[in-house]
Amino acid sequence: MKEAIRTGILAPTFDLPGVDGKNHTLTEILGGRRAAVILFWCNHCPYVSSYEERIKKMAQRYASKGVAFVLINSDSEAAHPEDSMDNMKKRAAAAGYLFPYLRDKDATVALAYEADTIPEAFVVDATGAVRYAGKIDDCWQSERRVKRQPLRDALEDVLHDRDVAVKTAAPVGCAIKREA
To answer: Which portions of the chain are predicted below pLDDT 50?
Structure first.
Protein backbone atom coordinates (compact mmCIF):
# COMPACT_ATOMS: atom_id res chain seq x y z
CA MET A 1 0.00 0.00 0.00
CA LYS A 2 3.02 2.30 0.49
CA GLU A 3 3.30 3.00 -3.26
CA ALA A 4 -0.37 4.00 -3.53
CA ILE A 5 0.02 6.93 -1.14
CA ARG A 6 3.08 8.36 -2.88
CA THR A 7 1.35 9.59 -6.02
CA GLY A 8 -1.49 12.06 -6.24
CA ILE A 9 -0.49 13.81 -3.01
CA LEU A 10 1.20 17.17 -2.65
CA ALA A 11 4.94 16.71 -2.66
CA PRO A 12 6.55 17.26 0.72
CA THR A 13 8.34 20.58 0.74
CA PHE A 14 12.00 20.96 1.64
CA ASP A 15 14.66 23.56 2.33
CA LEU A 16 18.07 21.95 1.92
CA PRO A 17 21.68 23.12 1.48
CA GLY A 18 23.23 22.58 -1.93
CA VAL A 19 26.75 22.07 -3.15
CA ASP A 20 26.54 25.64 -4.52
CA GLY A 21 26.46 27.03 -0.95
CA LYS A 22 22.78 28.05 -1.17
CA ASN A 23 19.65 26.52 0.27
CA HIS A 24 17.04 25.31 -2.21
CA THR A 25 13.31 24.75 -1.73
CA LEU A 26 10.76 22.79 -3.71
CA THR A 27 8.95 26.07 -4.44
CA GLU A 28 12.12 27.56 -5.92
CA ILE A 29 12.90 24.40 -7.92
CA LEU A 30 9.40 24.36 -9.43
CA GLY A 31 9.47 28.16 -9.87
CA GLY A 32 6.98 28.41 -12.74
CA ARG A 33 8.21 25.24 -14.42
CA ARG A 34 5.92 22.54 -15.75
CA ALA A 35 7.48 19.80 -13.63
CA ALA A 36 10.40 18.79 -11.47
CA VAL A 37 12.23 15.50 -11.17
CA ILE A 38 13.46 14.84 -7.67
CA LEU A 39 16.06 12.09 -7.51
CA PHE A 40 17.35 10.59 -4.29
CA TRP A 41 21.04 10.18 -5.02
CA CYS A 42 24.45 9.71 -3.41
CA ASN A 43 28.13 9.48 -4.29
CA HIS A 44 28.97 5.86 -3.52
CA CYS A 45 26.21 3.76 -5.12
CA PRO A 46 27.11 1.81 -8.30
CA TYR A 47 23.54 2.26 -9.54
CA VAL A 48 23.96 6.04 -9.33
CA SER A 49 27.26 5.80 -11.21
CA SER A 50 25.52 3.83 -13.94
CA TYR A 51 22.70 6.38 -14.24
CA GLU A 52 24.74 9.58 -13.88
CA GLU A 53 25.28 10.30 -17.59
CA ARG A 54 21.70 9.29 -18.47
CA ILE A 55 20.29 11.71 -15.90
CA LYS A 56 22.55 14.52 -17.10
CA LYS A 57 21.36 13.97 -20.69
CA MET A 58 17.73 13.74 -19.59
CA ALA A 59 18.00 16.94 -17.56
CA GLN A 60 19.53 18.76 -20.51
CA ARG A 61 16.89 17.43 -22.92
CA TYR A 62 13.97 18.40 -20.66
CA ALA A 63 15.25 21.80 -19.48
CA SER A 64 13.85 23.51 -22.58
CA LYS A 65 10.49 21.83 -21.90
CA GLY A 66 10.21 23.44 -18.48
CA VAL A 67 11.41 20.54 -16.32
CA ALA A 68 13.83 21.05 -13.44
CA PHE A 69 16.00 18.29 -12.02
CA VAL A 70 17.32 18.13 -8.46
CA LEU A 71 19.42 15.50 -6.70
CA ILE A 72 19.00 14.89 -2.95
CA ASN A 73 21.58 12.94 -0.96
CA SER A 74 19.97 11.50 2.19
CA ASP A 75 22.59 8.82 2.80
CA SER A 76 24.51 8.59 6.07
CA GLU A 77 28.01 9.97 5.86
CA ALA A 78 28.85 7.93 8.99
CA ALA A 79 28.12 4.79 6.96
CA HIS A 80 29.57 6.26 3.74
CA PRO A 81 32.05 9.13 4.30
CA GLU A 82 32.08 9.74 0.54
CA ASP A 83 28.55 11.14 0.94
CA SER A 84 29.67 14.17 2.96
CA MET A 85 28.91 17.65 1.65
CA ASP A 86 32.58 18.21 0.77
CA ASN A 87 32.62 15.03 -1.30
CA MET A 88 29.28 15.95 -2.88
CA LYS A 89 30.83 19.25 -4.00
CA LYS A 90 33.74 17.37 -5.56
CA ARG A 91 31.42 14.90 -7.30
CA ALA A 92 29.14 17.63 -8.67
CA ALA A 93 32.12 19.58 -10.02
CA ALA A 94 33.79 16.52 -11.56
CA ALA A 95 30.54 15.29 -13.10
CA GLY A 96 29.49 18.75 -14.32
CA TYR A 97 26.05 18.77 -12.70
CA LEU A 98 23.98 21.63 -14.08
CA PHE A 99 21.24 21.16 -11.49
CA PRO A 100 21.11 21.40 -7.70
CA TYR A 101 22.68 18.62 -5.61
CA LEU A 102 21.29 18.91 -2.09
CA ARG A 103 22.18 17.41 1.29
CA ASP A 104 19.42 15.88 3.43
CA LYS A 105 21.74 14.95 6.29
CA ASP A 106 19.09 13.70 8.70
CA ALA A 107 17.03 12.03 5.91
CA THR A 108 13.84 13.88 6.88
CA VAL A 109 13.08 14.65 3.25
CA ALA A 110 13.66 11.02 2.21
CA LEU A 111 11.32 9.93 4.99
CA ALA A 112 8.70 12.47 3.92
CA TYR A 113 8.84 11.12 0.36
CA GLU A 114 8.98 7.54 1.67
CA ALA A 115 12.13 7.08 -0.40
CA ASP A 116 14.29 4.18 0.68
CA THR A 117 16.31 3.47 -2.47
CA ILE A 118 19.11 5.26 -4.29
CA PRO A 119 18.40 6.24 -7.04
CA GLU A 120 14.68 6.81 -6.64
CA ALA A 121 12.81 9.30 -8.82
CA PHE A 122 9.73 11.44 -8.20
CA VAL A 123 7.96 13.54 -10.82
CA VAL A 124 6.21 16.57 -9.35
CA ASP A 125 3.91 18.60 -11.59
CA ALA A 126 3.50 22.39 -11.64
CA THR A 127 0.78 22.22 -8.97
CA GLY A 128 3.17 20.41 -6.62
CA ALA A 129 1.48 17.00 -6.92
CA VAL A 130 3.56 13.82 -7.05
CA ARG A 131 2.66 12.15 -10.33
CA TYR A 132 5.29 9.38 -10.48
CA ALA A 133 7.49 7.54 -7.98
CA GLY A 134 10.03 4.86 -8.73
CA LYS A 135 12.81 3.71 -10.99
CA ILE A 136 14.45 5.54 -13.87
CA ASP A 137 14.30 2.71 -16.40
CA ASP A 138 14.42 -1.09 -16.56
CA CYS A 139 18.16 -1.67 -16.99
CA TRP A 140 20.57 0.08 -14.68
CA GLN A 141 23.54 -1.88 -16.06
CA SER A 142 23.34 -0.72 -19.67
CA GLU A 143 21.52 2.09 -21.42
CA ARG A 144 21.66 0.07 -24.65
CA ARG A 145 19.52 -2.68 -23.07
CA VAL A 146 16.76 -0.37 -21.79
CA LYS A 147 13.29 -1.35 -23.00
CA ARG A 148 11.04 0.59 -20.61
CA GLN A 149 11.57 4.11 -19.31
CA PRO A 150 8.86 4.85 -16.74
CA LEU A 151 10.47 8.12 -15.59
CA ARG A 152 10.63 9.50 -19.14
CA ASP A 153 7.13 8.23 -19.91
CA ALA A 154 5.73 9.90 -16.76
CA LEU A 155 7.42 13.18 -17.73
CA GLU A 156 5.93 12.99 -21.21
CA ASP A 157 2.47 12.31 -19.75
CA VAL A 158 2.76 15.32 -17.43
CA LEU A 159 4.04 17.58 -20.21
CA HIS A 160 1.18 16.53 -22.49
CA ASP A 161 -1.45 17.01 -19.74
CA ARG A 162 -2.28 13.31 -19.63
CA ASP A 163 -2.89 11.07 -16.67
CA VAL A 164 0.39 9.30 -15.90
CA ALA A 165 -0.05 5.76 -17.22
CA VAL A 166 2.47 4.12 -14.86
CA LYS A 167 2.38 5.95 -11.53
CA THR A 168 4.85 3.74 -9.67
CA ALA A 169 7.65 1.36 -10.58
CA ALA A 170 9.71 -0.31 -7.88
CA PRO A 171 13.13 1.35 -7.76
CA VAL A 172 16.31 -0.70 -8.03
CA GLY A 173 19.45 0.41 -6.26
CA CYS A 174 21.15 0.80 -2.91
CA ALA A 175 19.24 1.23 0.34
CA ILE A 176 19.37 4.69 1.88
CA LYS A 177 21.45 4.42 5.07
CA ARG A 178 20.11 6.79 7.71
CA GLU A 179 22.07 8.25 10.60
CA ALA A 180 21.55 6.24 13.80
So the answer is: 1-4
> Is residue 180, in this structure, part of any structural domain at all?
no
Percentages helix, strand, coil for the chain (3-state, rounded to 5) are: 35, 25, 40
Query: Alpha-carbon distance 44 to 145, whole Å?
Result: 23
CATH number, domain with residue 154: 3.40.30.10
* Residues sharing a CB contact under 8 Å with residue 117, sequence separation 6 or more, in sequence order: 40, 171, 172, 173, 174, 175, 176
Q: Is residue 28 part of a domain?
A: yes
Does 108 map to a domain?
yes
What pairing do the DSSP bridges indicate for beta strands 67-73 and 35-41? parallel
Q: What is the pLDDT of residue 143?
A: 74
C-alpha span between 86 and 50 (Å, rounded): 22
For 124, the 3-state DSSP assignment is: strand
Answer yes or no: is 114 within a domain: yes
> Strand, helix or coil at 131?
strand
Domain that holds residue 125: 2-175
pLDDT digits (tens, 9 = 90+) for 91-110: 999 999 999 999 999 999 99
In whole angstroms, what is the distance from residue 104 CA to residue 39 CA? 12
Cβ-Cβ contacts under 8 Å for 53 (sequence gap 6 or more): 143
* Overall pTM surpassing 0.90 (yes/no): yes
Q: Count how many domains the chain has.
A: 1
Residue 169: in which H helix or E strand, if any? Answer: strand 168-169
